[in-house]
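Entry 14. Ran structure prediction on the chain below.
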Amino acid sequence: MKRLLAIKSYVVLLLCVLALNALERTRGQENADATSAKYSVDFTEKIGKIKPLNGTNLWADLHVSRNATGQQPEAVACRFSTVRLHDAPLVSAGMRIVDVQHIFGVDDADPKDPKNYYFDQTDDYIERIIDGGSTPIYRLGTSIEHSEKSYYAKKPRDPEHFAEVCAGIVRHYVAGWANGKTWNMPYWEIWNEPDLVPQMWDDRNWNSYVEFYLVVAKRLRAEFKDIKIGGPALTNANLDKIKELAQRCKEEDAPLDFVSWHCYPQTPEQLIEPVYAVRKLLDDLGFQKTELHLNEWHYLPCGWKGIQGDLEDKIYWLTSPEGLHGYVSAAFNDFVLTRWQDAPLDMSNHYGYSMKNWGLFEPYGGRRITYYSFLLFGELAHDAPYRVKTQDENGSVALLAGVDESGSQKKLLVSIFKDSGKRPIVIKVAGAPESGTVRVAQIDFQTGFSESELEYSGGVVQLPPKDSGVYLLRF
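Output, structure tokens:
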């Protein structure tokens, strides 16, 4: 019954807002002036570069041709900065890609003999990513297993042998070994979520992973001086586990070039606040140059129980406008990517591009509204990468703006996440014509994704209020 009432309310609200939408757009500037502007952008004042934190997990399904809908062209258009390869076989089902056991199929074979490796499909998968302009992040290990029995999601029985296999994989992709490549693949992550037992590991003693990491990391560093080696890809920013790993790396002179963790939050603060805590911990331990990678995240408004329990709840949260893939989730994505600009985060990877329950496409191939949040951020970061000064209230509305090197392209991203006041957004604009027309792309409940033009004057742009949504203004 609650789902039926929600659907009815949704339809009624949609009809109302559609009827008012055109009037709202034409009224936009009636009462806007510089004195009422709570927000501002100055396109003449560069303050650095926009951090390209718009990474993803996974890429286009290898089963589908390069030109198929929902695959390569759409991925390229988002201009993802990095692509983490974890769980790749779960998307390209039946393909022997990425996971160590798929590349090196006979566990006790000689890891120094190139004939014991199968690289073909992984070569093609990674080549698509590189052709698309993104940097692959290779996770050395296995994909998650939700089966009753763990087949590969457990500590390798011979860590030294496993390390030699990993060295062969790295050598193939960065040094051309075994008819390989010399690609720009700087990041190599050792395993995924070893704190998740039994889906990813088989020992609750954290030291079992730490010892394993030390063996693999030291072996890779011995041969490859220029790659970045890290982990542990925790399920959360567990400071105790990170501290133990870092301390042992210092004692053993093992590389820890980046520390990675995951988060599936309900609020932006859950993604932002741990970044500062991890940075302080590592700095205090002497790891000031160790990068921070939050390399799995996805808005999860219902918590894990909402999608792992009752089927009715799961369907609701996977399909509703305020759920995992609706307009609120899209606003959340750009809001967090904006707030991270001032946080000490070096890389983030949303989860995950082509995953059915987590990705940016419907099962039948259509784009979810969340796809456009990455499309718009990618456009800003690519076309106008020089960040300029903005001012907001550090509340539910976040501004991020940039220009190109010449200053001819000027773009402003406005992200609104759960603004209870639903106030018009009045923005004072400097460094652009005082009056004119600005092209606007927007994401919201009323229109989904749409593009239009907006008249403004007096150096002030007024945007209609939204509870959640995104605007990209192209001056």
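The first strand starts at residue 39 and ends at 49. Will compare against last week's run tomorrow.
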